[in-house]
Design goal:
Layout lengths: L1 E6 L2 E4 L4 E9 L6 E7 L6 E7 L5 E3 L7 E6 L4 E6 L8 E8 L5 E2 L5 E6 L1
Length: about 120
């Protein structure tokens, strides 16, 4: 099983930027793709971006296209989420998770809080 640890959250003004990191350990060799989710008190947890671990193919939710950039460094077993032009509605706890082919998302980290002040 993969263990994941997020970092990089914080308090930032609207229009600012943050880069989140997700460090993976354990059975990373079975990972098909990894993703970033977010959850706020008002909304259910949603997938905002994902990346295939091998080929780097990316997916973005419509709400974040053009502002979020997902990437990974296979040599460091780390995934990143660059968030630009932050908006108040981006305020949430951001989680990373991993997925093996044909299986559910797993290895959830503890989350990192992103708070955007207007």
């Amino acid at each position: 099983q993969v263990q994941l640890v997020e970092s990089g959250g914080g308090l930032v003004q609207a229009g600012g930027s943050l880069r989140l990191s997700c460090a993976a350990s354990g059975r990373t060799f079975t990972t098909w793709r990894m993703g970033w989710f977010r959850q706020s008190p008002e909304k259910e947890r949603e997938l905002v971006a994902a990346i295939s671990w091998s080929g780097g193919i990316t997916y973005y939710a419509d709400s974040v296209k053009g502002r979020f950039t997902i990437s990974r460094d296979k040599s460091k077993n780390t995934m990143y989420l660059q968030i630009d032009s932050l908006k108040a509605e981006d305020t949430a706890v951001y989680y990373c998770a991993a997925q093996e082919a044909g299986r559910r998302w797993s290895g959830w980290g503890q989350g990192t809080q992103v708070t955007v002040s207007s």
